[in-house]
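Ticket #4471: structure output looks truncated?

Reporter: J.K.
Steps to reproduce: submitted the chain below (142 residues) through the standard prediction queue, then opened the result file.
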Amino acid sequence: MTRTVNGTRRRDCRSADPGFTLIELLVVLSIVVILASLGMAGYSHAITRAKEATLKEDLFRLRDAVDQYYADKAQYPQSLDTLVTDGYLRAVPKDPFTNSADTWQQIPSEPDPNNPTAQPGIYDIKSGSEATALDGSKYADW
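Returned output as attached by the reporter:
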């Protein structure tokens, strides 16, 4: 809107075209990018923490099933599938970092001196992943 004051035309500042300047758009865009990158970093750490919690729970359940098998039968199971077929586990869980049930590292038991003909079984279970945890330890050492 223009108006005339003392014979000169003046443009009214309140009637300027509404909109954003390029600098305002760039500032807003950079703030959005910074917030999105912070959110993605937090999201990836949350996913890793959830996988670590799942791994700890799976290792606890597998080791508990091996201990129950030993307590019931006085020998260690020959394989993880033995725990499933004998009803100590419903299924062998997948390692959350290797995404496979076949990569579990099985630690064999020592031979029984009282029964030298008995086959050594599975004494302990560890993850097959070579990745490093958030605390700096290896998943294979858990």
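Triage note (M.O.): checked the attachment and the full token line is present. The chain has a mean pLDDT of 88.
Status: closed, working as intended.
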